[in-house]
Amino acid sequence: MAEQVMEARGLTKRYGNALAVDHVDLHLEKGQIYGLVGRNGAGKTTIIRMITAQTTPTEGTITLFGANTPKGLAAMRARTGAMVEVPSFYPYLDARQNLEYYRIQRGIPGKSAVEEALEAAGLADTGRKKFKHFSLGMKQRLGLALALMNRPDFLLLDEPINGLDPEGIVEFRNLLLRLSQERQTTILISSHILSELSNLATCYGFLDRGIMLEEISAKRLEEKCRACLELHVDDAPAASLVLERTLGTNDYEVVHPTVLRLYSHLDRPGEIARAMVEAGVTLSALESRGANLEDYFLNLIGGARHA
Ligand SMILES: Nc1ncnc2c1ncn2[C@@H]1O[C@H](COP(=O)(O)OP(=O)(O)OP(=O)(O)O)[C@@H](O)[C@H]1O
């Protein structure tokens, strides 16, 4: 069984009468890249701040690397690194000097920690360039380097991609993939744009107004968003036979006794309708479906709001 890095149960944060985070459960296993997705104000930052002990939960428990006592948690937090807001760096210092300042302040042993962190964040070649001349992408990467200085096993990043241009997003994503592959770092990354995390996250948690609507693996999400033709019929087993024998495809699933999803023949709905009619299967609807990631999330939120 994969090692559990973090588990939160019933995690709740109340500010006065407002519930910023409402009984959220979260699970992260070693090596996962967990995308925490929610619109502005959904509670992402508050969750990350509770995990990093920057704020105290009103209710609920957090377990980090198997520890859940205050003392145990404090010890395990040394194995985490976080970038919650862009840290304040000195504008007239370069990347190395800024990190060296924080290394000493945090008591991280060994000067090589700075070099290693700069290397891991793709900033090893910035030389004497002062922070004030950094692009936003470089500033974000310096924030990442700072979070990496203690070589964390578990990295928490709050909206690190926010404001980056497409090229910056790809660069940042590649850095995180490298960390995940080379060091098996477990990563929790939040974003309000689901598609920013595609090709990166291995699982997602969808958060809306403090409530965790769904935790889902990237693989399952991809399957759910795959383009298909949805067939509404009177008899799904009979329709399956038509798909297999007449149309020669196995690329379908029966999702209900009267509904099938067909992933092949997407551009040939007429052929499908004809084959069904000829076999005596009543086809009451044939719809083209397939959500992109963003639509999936919006539908999920919409569903929860109308419930
Ligand atoms: N210190 C605080 N005092 C009062 N309310 C707060 C405080 N911090 C957060 N909130 C409220 O809690 C809710 C969740 O905020 P949070 O910052 O966690 O959301 P978020 O998903 O990270 O959004 P954003 O991307 O805008 O930061 C919001 O309604 C916010 O106004």
Structure commentary:
The chain is of the alpha/beta class and 307 residues long. The protein has a six-stranded mixed β-sheet, with helices on both faces. A four-stranded antiparallel β-sheet has the order 11-12-10-13, covered by helices on one side. The protein has a three-stranded antiparallel β-sheet with strand order 2-1-4. β6, α6 and β7 form a beta-alpha-beta unit. α3 crosses α4 and α4 crosses α5. The two termini are 36 Å apart. The site of adenosine-5'-triphosphate (ATP) has 12 residues, from α1.
CATH class of the largest domain: Alpha Beta
Bound molecules: adenosine-5'-triphosphate
The largest β sheet comes out as:
6 strands, mixed
Distance between the termini: 36 Å
Q: Could you say what the CATH topology of the largest domain is called?
A: Rossmann fold
* Main structural class: alpha/beta
Q: How many beta strands in the DSSP annotation?
A: 13
Relative strand content: 25-35%
> What percentage of residues falls in helices of 4 or more residues?
25-40%
Instruction: Give the CATH H-level superfamily of the largest domain.
Output: P-loop containing nucleotide triphosphate hydrolases
Order of helices and strands: EEEHEHEHHHEHEEEHEHEEHEH
Count of helical segments?
Answer: 10
Overall pLDDT metric: 90
Shape: elongated
Arrangement of strands in the largest sheet: 5-6-7-3-8-9
Number of structurally distinct domains: 2
Radius of gyration: 24 Å
